[in-house]
Amino acid sequence: MHDRIRSLIAVAVIVCCVALWWATVHISGSRIFPTPWQVVLGMVQLAQQGLLLKHVVASLFRVTCGYLLAAMLAMVLGLLMGRFHSVYVACNSLVQLLRPISPIAWIPLAILWFGVGDVSPIFLIFLASFFPIVIGTVAGVQTIDRQYIWAAENFGISGFKLLCFVIFPGALPQIITGMRIGLGVAWLVVVAAEMIAINSGLGYLIIDSRNAGNRYDLVVAGMVIIGVIGLLLDGLMRGLERLDEVQWRYGR
Amino acid sequence: MVSCAALRDSTRCNGAMGVKICVTDVWKTFPTPQGPLPVLEALDFTVAEGEFVALVGPSGCGKTTLLHILAGFDRPDRGAVRIDDRPIQGPRRQGIYVFQRGAVFPWLTVEQNMTLVLSDLPPAERQRLAAEYLALAGLQGFERSYPHQLSGGMLQRVELARALVTRPEILYLDEPLGALDALTRLRMRMELRRLLTHEHCTAVMVTHDVEEALDLADRVLVFSPRPATIRGSLLVPFPHPRPLRHRSMLELKRQILRALGVEDTEGDTAGGPSADLTLSTPAKWRQSLEPHAAGTRLRA
User: Fold this and answer.
1) Nearest Cα to A77, choosing from A66, A88, A64, A89?
2) Strand ranges of the sheet holding B78-83, from the earlier edge strand across to the other edge
3) CB distance B91–A145 less than 8 Å?
4) How far apart are CA A252 and CA A16, in angstroms?
5) How far apart are CA B81 and CA A42, in angstroms?
6) Binary contact (B92, A244; C-beta < 8 A)
7) Is A156 on the interface with B (CB under 8 A)?
8) What mean pLDDT is reported for chain B?
């Protein structure tokens, strides 16, 4: 019952914002900025042309590729950095040096290296989500309680088995937190990344709608769709936190 | 009480029959920002094969450090620890450490915790042994539970079952009941006794609960405040279950408390902290604790 009231309030806040938006457009009499209804019509038009699905799929494909690649490499690097002090010392400065550079700053280099196509946006999304996952994994490994490592040594668990059954699961809660942040950032840079896409993706939709005929209804439609998909993806990641294997960390 | 000289005499390790653990002149100092902190000083003692020795001392006196050294997690600065007349090199399955706060892997189920430590055995054997020891510890029906779903007492059973299933020759118990509430603590104390009797392994237990030491151990080593030195070594020559309120037991308790620098004010009619013992004492115990039964002759 309490939960229902809470979600009702959340919906009410969104409805209020939309109403405010609608009223503002009406009162100001703007001819360029769309009303919510025009945005909905724009979406319907996109859907009828089959473009909506095409753009969404293109964006999801690029985010999935870049993100999964980042997650795999970041976990390997993070586990090594967290477990071996020498690797940490060797790599940490480089990681901290590259981390604050916005993926957008890499766009010229991405075009230079990979040209215009799918690879460049995937590379930018990879860059965006790589560092949060590395940081999460390193922190996760470094903060595993010493007694678990000792107990494992005591029972003669070592090498690959130690990694699979002690280190990785022990760090998993923080790895998941890093992955959540990483996915958020990946989705965040999708628009910028798809400025160098040829003819598909939600980012492309936004840029193209503005350039080709000031279709601001489609610009806003693209924004809304990105927001909604981001919300759904985060819900999916939150689902990971409910796994039995990590419940020990996230409260009982 | 055993004098220091007598204690030294008993620490001749070289090939002595029945000596499991031999500690000779062990020193340990920790560096701190305020300068070196001596923790262990010139420790000499032995533990016989199958013996249960309790290390009793004030909090922070270095007992846990000593246990870490025995288990191979830490090294002494000076001196030697030999097990089966061989120097120790790191932690080994021969001696399993039971941690105070518990080290059951929380990301694995109870059963997975048991089978992981048996992973050198064929799967069928793993399953069989895990089931056998879970049953022994009274954990049937909790195989698929995760540790965070269990109570403190249950978790401690898992901890013990996981240690025992590997058939260790030695158990290092670091305040194994320290994190439990008073009632569970008493219940688990009996449980621990039962499990250890079943396994016949050598055990070294750190505790600051004198009564717990007297109830479980064959011998109690009393430590001084830091840097830890041995103040005394007392045999507890009573069969189990022990008549904790018998005059000789109370006398032993007084001796230990005196060695710890605490004067026991309880007198012969023990009240105070041990009074709650009756709460969970099984009938057969209570009988032997009744005044008329107290005169029963004890094997000394």
Assistant:
1) A88
2) B35-48, B19-32, B78-83, B86-87
3) no
4) 36
5) 80
6) no
7) yes
8) 80
What is the pTM assigned to this prediction? 0.79
Query: A125-181: per-residue pLDDT in tens?
Result: 999 999 999 999 999 999 999 999 999 999 999 888 999 999 999 999 999 999 999
Q: Is B144 on the interface with A (CB under 8 A)?
A: no
Given an 8 Å threshold on Cβ–Cβ distance, is A150 in contact with B91? yes
Residue B13: name the closest of B2, B25, B24 by CA.
Answer: B24
Q: Tell me, yes or no, if A248 comes closer than 8 A to chain B by beta carbon.
A: yes
Rounded CA gap, B210 and B232, in Å? 13
Chain B's closest residue to A251, CA to CA, is B148
Across the interface, do A248 and B103 touch by the CB < 8 Å criterion? no
For residue B123, being part of any structural domain is answered with no
Q: Give chain A positions within 8 Å (CB) of B143.
A: none
Query: Structural domain of residue B224, as residue ranges?
Result: 4-94+168-293
ipTM of the complex: 0.78
Contact B108 A247 (CB under 8 A): no
Checking if the pLDDT of B288 tops 70, the result is: no
DSSP B36: E
Between B211 and B276, whose confidence is greater? B211
Does residue B145 belong to any structural domain of this protein?
Answer: no
pLDDT 10s digits, B81-104: 999 889 988 899 999 999 888 899
Look at the block and give the residue holding tokens 């400065």: A93
Residue B188 inside a domain? The answer is yes
Query: Which pLDDT band holds residue B266 (cuts at 50, 70, 90)?
Result: low
Taking a C-beta distance cutoff of 8 angstroms, is the pair B214, B253 a contact?
A: yes
Closest residue of chain A to B72, computed from CA coordinates: A154
Mutant choice from A143, A148, A154, A172 vs B, greatest count of B C-beta within 10 A: A154
What are the tens digits of pLDDT across the range A173-182? Answer: 999 999 999 9
Distance CA B61, CA A142 (A): 28
> CA of A147: which chain B residue's CA is closest?
B103
Domain count, chain B: 1
The 10 Å CB-count burial string (b at 16+, else e) for A78-101 is bbbbbbeeeebeebeeebeeeeee
Whose CA is closest to B242, among B199, B274, B267, B201?
B274
Query: Do residues B170 and B196 make contact, with C-beta atoms less than 8 angstroms apart?
Result: no
Convert the pLDDT of each residue in A14-62 to its tens digit: 999 999 999 998 898 888 888 899 899 989 988 998 888 999 999 999 9
| Tokens encoding A185 | 């950032």
Please state, in angstroms and rounded to a whole number, the distance separating the CA atoms of residues A153 and B90: 9
Give how far the C-alpha of residue B101 lies from the chain's centroid of Cα atoms, to the nearest Å: 14
Tell me the CATH number at B62: 3.40.50.300
- Kindly tell me if the per-residue pLDDT of B8 is higher than 70: no
- Whether residue B190 lies inside any domain: the answer is yes
Please tell me the distance from the alpha carbon of residue B39 to that of residue B20, in angstroms, as a whole number.
Answer: 24
Kindly determine whether residue B93 and residue A156, on different chains, have CB atoms separated by under 8 Å: yes
